[in-house]
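User: Quick sanity check before I run a bigger batch. Here is a single chain. Can you write out its predicted 3D structure?
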Amino acid sequence: MSKILTISVAAYNVEPYIKENIESILASKARDDIEIFVVDDGGKDGTYEIAKGYEEKYPDIVHAVHKENGGYGSVQNYSIAHATGKYFKILDGDDWMDTEGLTKLVDYLRTSDVDAVVTNYKKGPDKGSLSLFDFSRHIEPNEEIDPNSIDVPIGMWALVFKTDVLRKSGVVLPEHILYTDRIYSTVPFTWVKKLVFLNIPVYCYRTGREGQSVSRESRIKHIDEYLSVTETMCRHYTEDDRAHKEYLILKAASAYKVTIRALLLLDTNEENKQKLVDYESRVKEIAPDVYKKAASLKTRMGWVITFLRATGYRGYAVLGKVPKGKIDY
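Assistant: Done. Predicted structure follows.
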């Protein structure tokens, strides 16, 4: 039976969190119009067994999947291929939904035919310590929006795509690497004609958990994956001429600045300086517009990038004396 919304839960070793995750969806009054793929990506804990218990109790809603480890991208590729929902949303296994917001979202989607929906989201270490990211400061609610008018990059936490749009876009996320949600939230946008912002929080993003891919330690360890994903976004901006170039360059330049910040978290030495210089050179060749926009003096990182380039990267040694925490997110 077709559903209104498919929710893809990437559930790799998230046993302490998966009950809260699933129950935040099942508590919604709209749960019968939702299907949940809880995809255990080769984990070693009890995540799959917990999800299987929910599947036995709610077989028309919860689908527990255990597969060989392929990374975050493989989870979303699986769920997009198997989704029956008219719309599609990602939820990481250690995060959860604002139940009331989810209900309002599905109520809207029942009669909607837009290609994508943007919603607010909350972030924090737990339910008692959440802050709201409110897009109403940037986007007019409840009206169709031209993506090129958006002046803030939108991450996967805030996005719902029509499933047909995802499939038409041909998006296939790289496997066995991190940070592919950046590609997911960018590539399908060239197929979005109708976009609406709903001024409600839906996604709740857990921060501060040990081992998260966005932690400083993980970004340092997986720096080459960071570089690869951002380079993919830059190539997409250059090569895809369908639509929304202004928004796509905003996304690519934002990702590029975050990547430079991650490079500056590495130990300050000649090898890592060369890694930064080489990356700047590659992006300048691939997407010169992105290279230029990233150095905009409207942001602090834009000033940093401008300083590095203006000094022929001799300023790298100066930045190396800045405590790493001052460079971090």
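The chain has a mean pLDDT of 93.

User: Great, the batch can go ahead then.
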